[in-house]
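Appendix B. Chain record.
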Amino acid sequence: MDVNVNDLVVKIINFWDKYPHNEWDVSKIRNEFSKDELVAIMNSANYDAVIEKNAFVIQSFYSKIYEINNLFTVDEIYEFNPDIKTDDLVSLFFFTLSDDKLVELLKRYNSPDIQYEIFSTIRTDYYRDIAMNYMKKSRRLDEIVSQFESDELMLKHLKSVPYSLRGYVVANLKDDYYKEKFLTLFSGNKSSIICSLSTDEKKIHYFKKYYLLLDSYEKIDIISSFTNVDNIMKYAHIFKKEDDYQYFIGRFVSRDRIEVAVELCERLKDEETLATVLRRYLDEFPIERVLQMFEKLNDGYQKTRILTAFPDDLKIKYIETIGQANRKVLIESIVDLDVKISSLQYLEKFSDIEGVIEHTEKFPVYTNEYQFLLDKYATCYNLNKDNLLYIVKNIDMSVLKLIKNENLRKIINSDEQAFYKIMELFGKQNYTLDASSMNDVLNSLLQREFKLARNDIVLIFPMILQAFDFGNNEKAISLIEKMISDFKSEFDIEEYLESIGYTKDSFIDSLIKKDTKAVEVLHDVTARYIRFKRNEYIKDNLVASKDKTMKSKFDKKSMMKCILNKFPVDLIMVFFPLYSEYKENGWYESRGFTDEELELLKNRDLIVEIIKYKKNPSSYSEIPLEVKQNLWVFNKLFEVVLNNNYLVNSLDIGANKIYSFKEVSGEHIVSILASLDVEKLQKGILSNPEMFEKIFKLLKQYKMLGWGNSYDSLLSGAGIVIDEETIANFIQYFPVIYTELSQKIEKGQLNTMSLTAMLDLAMCFSTESYKYSYLFGAEDFKLIASNPGPNSSSMVKEKRISNAIEDLKVIRNRDYVSVPPIDKDFDLKSGKKMNVVVGNFSNPINLTYGERTGACMRIGGAGESLYNFCLESDHGFHIRFVNPVTGGFVSRVSGFRNGNTVFLNQLRYSVDSSFSNLDVMEACKLVAKEIVELSRGSNSPIDNVVISSDMVMSGQLVQSFGVRDIKKGLSTKDVYSDVGEYGVVLATSRLDNSLVPVKLGNIGVKKYLVQRDKVRILYDKNCLDYIRHIEVMDQVLGGTSIDNVTISDEVEYLICYTGEDWYVALDKTGKISQYIMKNSNNKEKALEEVQQALEAIKMHLEDTINITQNTGLGM
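Structure tokens predicted for this chain:
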């Protein structure tokens, strides 16, 4: 049963107000909350994956009831799913049972994995001993027996552990006597026992005694367990291999013995090994010691490997010590925008400078410090330096990123008068959003949205007349009566009718007789009614539209007031962390607490008193002295703890919001400029002062240059699609737009020259030919043509479209991929599902991944080499994340296989609000495991899936992959990649998920057939669009130019089954049409899918429709 989250939150707050949490017990909770509600609360443990509204309240409640035993019965937990898989959520339910109940539950399961989870939840040795009677089949008996606290019970059950694993159990004993005794008995796993001995002397004794039987990793484990540093250094020399020594150092880092790790580093002679270790443990080592070792290095490449992980100031300090060949890589790693751009002066090659600029996503405000950069660009591209300087000063430095765009260069090199006229349009006053422009835009868009959403109101006049014409008087009268009722508060229609000589009945009779005066009155009344309902619609939707348009955050003081008013004291105290926890973890310094606030944080009783006073000050005759003295400190402390709680913004308890306008990126403005044709401007607004003045006023009023994505959802609701090209067309075709709308107004076809009417015409001037839309699909073609930022391509639109056609031919002929193809829905911890597709190339979405995610991996983009590699090479591919409910795109990651490892670039942020970035990360990890598992049985399995530590994966553990050049062995090494020798390990073939040594080279790796697109079911108009898509694509793939393709006739379809190269459709006359592309690269599979679709349509409709079959095969 679904649980309403808002109702549950209210219920929790009321319960908490009724009972302080120290009085909660199973009886009170079960009387108040249903089983389904408690399950929903338990599920809140996974809300980290997606922050739901008011998650704070639910999670806080969960953190309290989590400690209450037997909240659920054994029967209930078993009924949730008797075959339930082991995961974190299941363990949480197990924790609600007492030990005796856990043993009872354990008996019911036959799965060793689930039994292990239950056993691991048992808290006492007494019940562990009983539970051992049911654990004989477990594959993890060594881990199970080691959970006993008592040596006696561990020894009692040791015999049940396989002989080869008993050493692990013995190592967990407390008494050295037993450990030494068993050392002589067991032939294997001696290292773990030796490591567990209580003194270095004993460890050294047995280390020497069994030296020849120990492998290098066991020796490392033993020596790294020594307490005395001298003993460690004495034996450190035995590790000669680079990998062994790195692992040796890493053992001390993992045990927080940093000083020992640093001293071992200082003994390293090999520069590559030292650089690898320093980069890996830079955050753990004291920076002054790192610098001492760094300054002794001579190899510029090795120094660069370390420097890229340094703070920006140190990168600049040492940049001149690494040589020209390494500086570009170092500069690309700089975070501070000003430092990054100014550091380009250290590069000698212009191609290196341009490479950095093309991969820069955001630029600093221009200063004279960057003059050298403009000089280089002006010289290289033969640009008017003064005009270029004007743009970077007044618009954005991203103009350098798009400088290869021909339109942009023509604008920069245009004559002085034309240039400054164009720049006048692009002044800040025309793209800085404000309240006035927002109100004008929202009003206009909501009017259009009303027109589309409320046809029943907009068309009420013709609907009434039509109903009378068709003799449906009852319907016409009901429409009139509804209008009278809806309009009564604003305008009394019956009273108005009486004032002009009608009663309601006589007015209706006159309408039935088609009396001209009555029709004119109806027209007047319905026009008033429509205006009233339109204004009402705008008023009702204005606040919600504002929320969609602007950025918002809760006002902290208002939030504090709402929390104090609405939450019980006990719940409010959850915000205030225990001082001991903060001190133990050293958090109090990083979280911004002052000394006074920390002192108050120690005194929880006083905080409770202050909260009680602030909740109800009128109940106090006077303010308690201690409360009075600490009120100011409490207010500051409360604000700090709210700032530190990431769930606060999920609270929906009536706090006021602070709104701010979204700032449009400079690259967006420059992209509009790049879409302008100077010659069209010269013939249009630049040669017509009147038109120039009008367009200037409109740009200033509506600020459309600065819209960016602020109004996207509202524009969509109004049936308008706006991008940089549409705005450019609005400007360069404005005289034509204005003239055409003026003529419509003169003819009475239009009332006013509205913003939406002008935008409709601007969209018509797009080169978005309907044939291209059919070829690629409307959405993909829009992205190809509009080239949205950030990271827009500098290639002109016509060339991008031409390239896209050729690329479409490439992907439709792709046969193989060297990773297992996947199209599967994965279950996420949040309870949602994510569809993940690997190795599909036939879908045109493969051409627009860069545009969809703001990446440079696109046609003509800075990352075009990766784009091409993923389309053309059998070893390149994309992973697509899809909303399985809507079919909408969520995210993607692109990568390649090299040898036994899959290397993935940046995992892009989610573009679907239904899924958080954490959801995407979880799905990526799941599909990585799936790739490893599916390849496991081949003669060339995939042992590792690794990924860049940027974007969604930012903050994850970064480690070295142990290879310097991850592209070695690929057909081309020039492919762009933002994953290198360091990154995040997603999945490996090892049980502990540790990295398997990377082996590069794709000779002999298994190749799989590419993943075919899903079979979909479409209805009504969507059928015709996809049918034409299949037919147009077949013609183009067969060699027909886009200009010469034929478009099939208009047919009304009821339903259509579609695949990547076929369709089966049923029209309204009952005819079935089917088509398989001549240029399908797998006709056998297509025919199989078509047969299944035919059967599905016939089975569904043969009882109700007389079906005649009309077959038209493209084969």
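Further analysis of this model is presented in Appendix C.
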